Amino acid sequence: MLSCSIRSLRRLKCCCNKRWSSLILAKGYCFSKPKVVPSFCNTDIKFSRFYVWERQSSLRQWRRRSLYTVTDTYEAIELALDSVVKIFTVSSSPNYFLPWQNKSQRETMGSGFVIPGKKILTNAHVVADHTFVLVRKHGSPTKYRAEVQAVGHECDLAILVVESPEFWEGMNFLELGDIPFLQEAVAVVGYPQGGDNISVTKGVVSRVEPTQYVHGATQLMAIQIDAAINPGNSGGPAIMGNKVAGVAFQNLSGAENIGYIIPVPVIKHFIAGIEESGKYMGFCSMGLSCQPTENVQLRNHFKMQPHMTGVLVSKINPLSDAYGVLKKDDIILEFDGVPIANDGTVPFRNRERITFDHLVSMKKPNETALVKVLRNGGEHAFTITLQPLQPLVPVHQFDKLPSYYIFAGLVFVPLTQPYLHEYGEDWYNTSPRRLCELALRELPKRAGEQLVILSQVLMDDINAGYERLAELQVKNVNGIEIKNLKHLCQLVENCSRESLRIDLDDDRVVALNYESARIATSRILERHRIPSRMSIDLLSEQNSLLMDSAE
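Above: the chain sequence. Below: its structure as tokens.
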């Protein structure tokens, strides 16, 4: 890859020997003309001399840059040899259709690098649902046991620790740098597929903007580079100079040599939260759904003055602090004194723009923000406390067992997106349409709320005829609206009536003789070799309630 880079530089150098005007058109160079030309000078001669000087200066810069790039790559290689490790992960994901069992284990490999504090930084998806993790240094045949200290699935970052003192001998800790500018060169180091040894690929920064993080399904700042990031590269550092500019984590499918790295601000936010609280805290959100105000008639309708810019508040999450402060149809003009454009962006560096969500996500939990809004033609300033917010239907459920409750062969589970993912890669079209709409659009009304569904019916005489009611949402148990799966479990377990009634979506009803259903539950579990009628979290809750009642 290094030789390819040198050839590219040689081609640039050869291009410079051609007529400079064609080079400007081909490469998009911008040579600024002098603003003031003395009247006694011949304009054509003046411009010609100026362009020749600019061209010579640019050639000198390109030569210096080519030498610096080659040197910089070798420095990156030297740093990487004692800093980057290969990670071997054995993982086992839950089966959400059969939540009492796991899928078969699989082995994956990734990359990571050591940071101050004797820690290894890598991607969360490298160690997701892990059961066993090993790491290996460059040039060493020995694999060392590693433990996962903290994981942030939203930002796709994880921290590993290795207890063995032998592992840390001769290791070089990498320092975090800054966000690189456009066209700055970075070297991505890791262990991609296709070989067992360390690999170094070079690229330049193409774009810096909020991007969808595939693993955590969140939108955070990311850096696009033109270096190939292949499976196995994940978790490796992108080095610029002698510091880390980001962590490689995903690529763009269907495109060649378009990769993404997690920038330093996101990494520092993740690490700072762990150092302050001892655990991953998440990224803050205002809990708003906003609409751009680029249409002139829309701005006039909401009484925006010509000098005003901002975004229209469409929805507010009832669990956010903004719910009691902001209102629907408010226009957010500023966030912490930074004006918001009509397209929802704010200034970022030199003539770059970024969505204002980035300013929100970089806030620490329980931090406040000053928000300036336009309401009914009048300007108001409000202070809002920011917190990480969880959706009503969880987007991911890594590193934890799914919850379930079985009664009379009826399998109840909370609705999650991983459950819908069991319908295949095209789950959006193949999963039940009603459940899919609930997962993507419904907002929580209170803390701890879950959407509980009847996942399937394990056939028995007690539930014959109810098999067509699978995949419907559970609404009430004996006339009481359920809050979550734990609440449903309590209502069923503590039922004192002869008949148990469960109301489902679409006005469907399940009625069971309670005692007969309890007896049937045991034989159904035995028939299907299910170890328990409820998941570990619900079982622990039931045991706690029994102990409290005994006291």
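The longest helix spans residues 43-81.
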